Amino acid sequence: MNAKRFAAFLIVVAVSLGAVFYTTPGLLDNLRLGLDLQGGFEILYRAEPLEEGTEVTPQSLKEAALSLAMRADALGVAEPQIDTEGRDRIRVSLAGVENEDELRDIMKQPANLTFRSTEGCPSPDDFCKIELRGSDFKENAAKVFLNDVNQPIVQIEVKDKKKFEDVSRRLLGKPLGIFLDDELLSAPVVRGVFSDGTAVIEGQESLAEANRLKDIINLGALPVKLTELSVQRVGPTLGQLSLEQTIKAGILATILIFIFMLAYYRVPGIAAAISLTVYAWVLLVAFYWMDATLTLPGIAAFVLGVGMAVDANIITFERIREEMRAGKSLLSSLKAGSQNSLSTILDANITTVVAGVALFFFGSGAIRGFAVTLIASIVVSMLTNVLFTRILLNFLLKGFPRMKPEWIGVRSSQIADISSSKQQAKPDQYPIPYDLMKHRKWYFAVSAAITVVGIVTLLLFNLNYGVDFKSGTRIDITAGGPVSKEDVEKRLEEAGFEPADISIGGEGNSRITVRFAEVLDTDEERRFAALYGAENVEVNTVDPTIANELKRKAVYAVLFAAVLIVIYVAVRFEWRFALASVIALFHDAFIVISIFSIFRIEVNLPFIAAILTILGYSINDTIVIFDRIRENLRFWKIKSFADVVRLVNASVWQSMARTINTSVSTLIAAVALLAFSDSIRPFSLAMVVGLISGVYSTIFIASPIWLLLKGKTLGSRRSAKTAGAEKQ
Fold it and tell me: ∠5-7-8 over CA atoms, to 5°?
């Protein structure tokens, strides 16, 4: 035992876990939760010009967003989140609001800027007569300057010079109140007659105040109408329930992954458990520093990230165990395993980042939150589960250099007498438990049969699109007790509702999900909820325009991610690997789509997030095997098709534990989400099906396809040699 090394291990662990447990409560208290976790509503607006011949510019869109922010602030909404999207969209998220109807009515009205005088008013302090409106000012007519004494002034310009001259002449020496809606912003005194259509407003105490007044005047001159494209409303109780369910799933998944790693990998599993704890903490710190909003899909990505984070450890640990079985010492195995696994880890994680990038650029709202969490989790896992785990392993294994192989999960009887280099140089010496490639035609037949069933189902019934892709209104409520679909149908029919789809689920069959083909107004939403006395309500409304746009973006995102992944694999490996990978990728995606079509499970935006995550993640297993095939190609001489078959069989069996275990860890997280989190059940189901399909396609689809492609090159070489011999 090396006491110094072991002491260093204990110090690093104590400091790391101490920081985690000391700071985590504060981090959790200060995280910003999305409206799907704390309740509230989110609206996506489309900005349109009110006047013919005008258009919505980036500046006018920004100023319209500012108008909405000011209105929300004036109505007492805490921390409104308002962002512009694209050329004509504004997304407004308001958490913890009660007077939703009033807010929605006020928010979508054009900015009502008026300049008012006291002429004819009951009191000299009342500004009751409107002299100028926002439409009287030129667009972006207000500008801020500094005068001779370095004081800020606001210069304004109107469209009708004569009207402005008449107003200024009549109100000379009198105050002119500037109002946004009914709020008095400023009341400057008219000090001159303005005949050229411009004037300056003085008296602003700071540059910030002058800029605010400038923005408001430009807002008032903004001929923009806001149309609601989609609305999401979540009751505070339902948001809290979703949060509690998903956190419960995350805790259970983490505990099960800890048990799995400790039981299977023994001492290295201890390092993995510690680094996984640090990983979760670093990710929380990153969210806190970014001031990111944590949404329900974001937490789902966090939980999945726990499963994905140990992938790097599994790849490294399996490589270390493999080196030990080949006859190397513990420390030599540690060094060789760490070095040889790095490129595989990088390749596997970069493909998932590509999927996250596609999600971010083509997604919106909470889906972008999922993408950010997914990308951040991968970057953090590379730091903690590659760098930090290796530091812990070095301290731990070098502290006990004569550790028994069983402590690493390797039985003494498994350690070979020959070196790994000889083993690689002679493929016939590698033990192959079973010839997996022998039945490749059966694998292709099974996948083809599933594909045909999926195609037929899609042609006959299509997918069961949710409101995200089909427009309309989707309402989720939690009833007071168990309900049946027949009871819900009867009540809705008696109340005059005509739903497009009804599903029952949740704990004790108490959660009712109803989709309407048309967009319901707020009165109809309340009337529906009142049928069951439900206060726990989630409403999603999508306009047909945005539904078609979301469907188009979903297709672009999937194609974009697939193309980038194929290009990456082609560059890092070769075209045969890339072709086999893309076939396996679309196989996995289509399996999931077919399952959802056959069982009529609703397809929504989180489903697309799951498909993209599957595209990025399922190729991880494929890369693990392909990396081993590429490595073996450097040592093995391939002369016949039988050699290729043996090479692929050996590579698959060498990588089998890594292929299965990397998926098992993520599958644990996905199953936990499926079991506990009602709100994202379709997403979790898609992930579970995709992960299982990913393991299958890696072993039984991608590997045999590469085998056939490689075998054809041998046939071409033999034909070329034969032709050359005949010419001679």
Answer: 65
Residue 516 has pLDDT above 80, yes or no: yes
| CA dihedral sign of residues 338, 342, 348, 350 | positive
Q: What pLDDT is recorded for position 111? A: 62
Q: What is the reported pLDDT for 423?
A: 45
CB of 300 closer than 8 Å to CB of 607: no
Quick one: tokens of 683? 């997403």
> Which residue in this structure is represented by tokens 């991608």?
702
Give the total residue count for the chain. Answer: 728
Q: State the average pLDDT for the chain.
A: 83
Lowest mean pLDDT among 67-76, 323-332, 694-703: 67-76
Q: How far is CA 197 from CA 15, 143, 164, 175, 670, in A?
A: 69, 14, 6, 18, 65
Rounded distance, CA 580 to CA 704, Å? 9
For residue 503, what are its two tokens? 């599903």
Distance CA 597, CA 592 (A): 9
Distance of CA 190 to the CA centre of its chain: 54
pLDDT digit string, tens, across residues 200-239: 888 887 888 888 788 777 766 555 778 888 888 877 666 7
Helix axes 267-290, 366-382, angle to 10 degrees: 130
Query: What are residue 61's phi and psi, to 5 degrees?
Result: -65, -40
The number of beta carbons lying within 10 Å of the beta carbon of residue 709 is: 16
Taking the alpha carbons at both ends of the chain, their separation in whole angstroms is 70
| φ, ψ (nearest 5 deg) of residue 625 | -70, -45
Are residues 683 and 300 in contact, defined by beta-carbon separation less than 8 angstroms?
A: yes
Is residue 714's pLDDT more than 80? no
- The whole-number pLDDT of residue 382 equals 84
Collapse the DSSP code of 250 into the 3-class scheme (helix H, G, I; strand E, B; otherwise coil) and give the result: helix
Residue 722 confidence class, pLDDT cut points 50, 70, 90? very low
Written as six digits, the tokens of 720 are 């070329």
Q: Is 0.70 surpassed by the pTM of this model?
A: yes
Q: What is the 3-state secondary structure (H, E, C) of 600-664?
A: CCEECHHHHHHHHHHHHHHHHHHHHHHHHHHHHHCCCCCCCHHHHHHHHHHHHHHHHHHHHHHHH
Which contacts qualify for 437-441: CB closer than 8 Å, 24 or more apart? 437/645, 437/648, 437/649, 437/652, 437/703, 437/704, 437/707, 438/645, 440/700, 440/704, 440/707, 440/708
Confidence class of residue 429 from pLDDT cuts 50, 70 and 90?
low
Taking residue 498's Cβ as centre, other Cβ atoms within 10 Å add up to 9
Look at residue 223 in the predicted model and tell me its pLDDT.
58
Asked if 506 and 474 count as a contact pair (C-beta separation under 8 A), the reply is: no
- 108: region left, alpha or beta (phi > 0 left; psi from -120 to 50 alpha): alpha
Are the CB atoms for 694 and 617 separated by under 8 Å? yes
Residue 465: strand, helix, or coil:
strand
Strand 602-603 and strand 464-465: pairing? parallel
Does residue 695 carry a pLDDT above 50? yes
- Report residue 238 as tokens: 């339902």
Please tell me the distance from the alpha carbon of residue 63 to that of residue 71, in angstroms, as a whole number.
Answer: 12
Q: Which two tokens stand for residue 379?
A: 């970057």
User: How sure is the predictor about 535, in pLDDT bands with cuts at 50, 70 and 90?
Assistant: low
**Alpha carbon separation from 10 to 116, 277, 338, 400 (Å, rounded):** 73, 15, 22, 13
**pLDDT band (50, 70, 90) for residue 424:** very low
Q: Report the distance separating Cα 279 and Cα 382, nearest Å.
A: 9
Q: Helix (H, G, I), strand (E, B), or coil: what is residue 308?
A: helix
